[in-house]
């Protein structure tokens, strides 16, 4: 696979170079610009600066990392990030050589916009082509898992579900465990040396508990002896309630327990600014006509109020009123006879015909942009739960209340990763909370942007958990 990866990387570099040239050609042929103007007939200088600026920007943005197992929304964010750096670098270089090279602003910004479009299209096409080739030709990397922790099981299920990522699990080494589902048991850790010698193993994923540091070190040394790639899947469950960063002091790795990103005033202002701008754009571009249309359909299709108001918990457990379009018949109760919260289920008879469409498209959540505007919700954050669900979960789910240390959101990291809708078991709720805590501890503007993009992609593709 190493030669294939090298060819694939070279192909990506070559294709991006072609996109840089093609964007210039397209802009030159546009009627808006005068092709005879000498300021625009310096293709070699323009393209040379463009290539230097792009690959310098790519170095800082790490856009050429292995992203086959990442969502395309993440790649979109990295493309935009690279384009921003590219724009700055190109402008700086053009300014330095302005006596030899004149850059027209309108021409340049049109070029950047077209280049962004070409990069998005080409990288999406490459992604789909690679996935198809992996499946058609069976170009899988043989992976061996050592350990049977919860992280190991999550990894095994992920590469099985998303087989187009190009990984095939040969089995796992550890004591026989029912927790690894149908993953093939190949023996204990001591058999690793034998398997590396006899089997064609491309990569070993070490998923042992932190307490077994000696075994982890031994596995790493064996993989090094056989020149086999190795990854460590850390058992960091005990650190889910804190934000962690791994650094080195000398050759010793150390975990820093640090403050949350949104503890910083500048990050709070950035997030709030994004919320306000995004919400205003929504109301100006879409909300002014879509919200009245949905309200009319609800009113004509069933009796009852248009807006459903529900008490939920927001920042610091403060009770807020969350607004939604009504999707169920008016005569319903939130609580069952035993006092537990009555969640919506698949094919729930309480949901109206219009309500089912609204829930499948997430349009029932659109009134929550008002919550964002008044400041008790954010565009992105942990989804707020109804008060009875909070009371149930706070006693059965680890670190549940920590999800309330930031503003709740209309969409969130858990939701775009398939953890939306009904939570049938405490284990599913625990998984949702773990994703929420991951988001809280690793917040960035780019992560928010990725989640918004993935929400739009999920809306277009459809979500099987939307009901």
The number of domains is 3
Multimeric state: single chain
Q: Mean pLDDT, as a whole number?
A: 84
Derived from helix and strand composition plus strand pairing, the structural class reads alpha/beta
Task: Give the uncertain stretches in residue-range form.
Answer: 35-41
Gyration radius from CA atoms, angstroms:
26 Å
**Anisotropy-based shape:** globular
Span between termini: 42 Å
Sheet with the most strands: spatial strand order: 2-1-3-4
- Annotation field: number of helices: 14
In N-to-C order, the SSE pattern is HHHHEHEHEHEEEHEEHHEHEHHH
Architecture overview:
By secondary structure, this protein is of the alpha/beta class. The chain has three domains: 2-137, no CATH class; 141-235, 3-Layer(aba) Sandwich (Rossmann fold), CATH 3.40.50.720; 263-461, no CATH class. It is built from 14 helices and ten strands. It has helices at 2-28, 43-61, 72-96, 105-137, 150-161, 192-198, 213-225, 265-301, 353-361, 368-374, 387-393, 413-416, 426-441, 445-461; strands spanning 141-146, 167-173, 203-206, 229-232, 243-249, 252-258, 307-313, 319-325, 378-380, 409-411. Helix 7 links the parallel strand 3 (203-206) and strand 4. Helix 2 (43-61) packs across helix 3, helix 3 (72-96) packs across helix 14 and helix 8 (265-301) packs antiparallel against helix 10 (368-374). The protein is globular. The chain starts with a helix and ends in a 6-residue tail after the last helix.
């Amino acid at each position: 696979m190493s030669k294939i990866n090298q060819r694939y990387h070279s192909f990506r570099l070559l294709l991006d170079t072609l996109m840089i040239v093609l964007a210039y050609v397209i802009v030159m042929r546009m009627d808006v610009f005068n092709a005879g103007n000498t300021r625009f007939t310096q293709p070699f200088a323009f393209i040379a600066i463009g290539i230097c600026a792009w690959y310098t920007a790519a170095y800082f943005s790490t856009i050429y990392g292995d992203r086959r197992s990442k969502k395309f929304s993440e790649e979109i964010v990295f493309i935009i990030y690279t384009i921003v750096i590219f724009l700055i670098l190109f402008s700086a270089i053009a300014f330095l050589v302005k006596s030899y090279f004149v850059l027209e602003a309108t021409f340049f910004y049109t070029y950047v916009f077209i280049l962004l479009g070409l990069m998005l299209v080409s990288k999406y096409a490459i992604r789909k082509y690679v996935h198809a080739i992996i499946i058609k030709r069976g170009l899988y990397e043989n992976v061996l898992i050592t350990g049977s922790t919860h992280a190991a099981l999550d990894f095994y299920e992920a590469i099985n579900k998303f087989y187009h990522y190009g990984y095939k699990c040969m089995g796992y080494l550890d004591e026989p465990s029912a927790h690894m589902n149908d993953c093939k048991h190949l023996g204990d850790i001591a058999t690793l040396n034998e398997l590396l010698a006899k089997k064609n193993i491309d990569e070993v994923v070490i998923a042992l508990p932190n307490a077994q540091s000696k075994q982890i070190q031994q596995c790493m040394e064996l993989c090094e002896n056989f020149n086999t790639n190795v990854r460590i899947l850390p058992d960091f469950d005990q650190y889910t309630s804190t934000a962690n960063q791994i650094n080195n002091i000398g050759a010793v790795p150390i975990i820093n327990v640090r403050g949350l990103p949104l503890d910083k005033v500048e990050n709070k202002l950035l997030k709030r600014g994004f919320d306000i701008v995004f919400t205003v754009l929504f109301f100006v571009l879409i909300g002014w006509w879509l919200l009245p249309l949905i309200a009319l359909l609800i009113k004509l299709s069933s009796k009852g109020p248009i807006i459903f108001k529900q008490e939920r918990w927001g920042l610091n457990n403060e009770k807020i009123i969350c607004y939604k379009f009504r999707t169920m018949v008016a005569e319903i109760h939130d609580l069952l006879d035993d006092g537990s919260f009555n969640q919506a289920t698949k094919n729930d008879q309480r949901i109206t015909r219009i309500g089912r469409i609204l829930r499948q498209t997430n349009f029932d959540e659109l009134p929550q942009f008002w919550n964002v505007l008044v400041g008790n919700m954010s565009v992105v954050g942990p989804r707020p739960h109804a008060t009875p669900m909070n009371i149930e979960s706070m006693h059965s789910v680890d670190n549940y209340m920590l999800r309330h240390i930031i503003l709740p959101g209309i969409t969130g990291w858990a939701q775009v990763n398939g953890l939306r809708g009904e939570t049938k078991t405490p284990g599913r709720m625990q998984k949702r909370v773990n994703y929420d805590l991951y988001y809280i501890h690793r917040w960035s503007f780019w992560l928010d942007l990725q989640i918004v993009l993935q929400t739009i992609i999920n809306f277009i593709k459809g979500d099987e958990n939307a009901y």
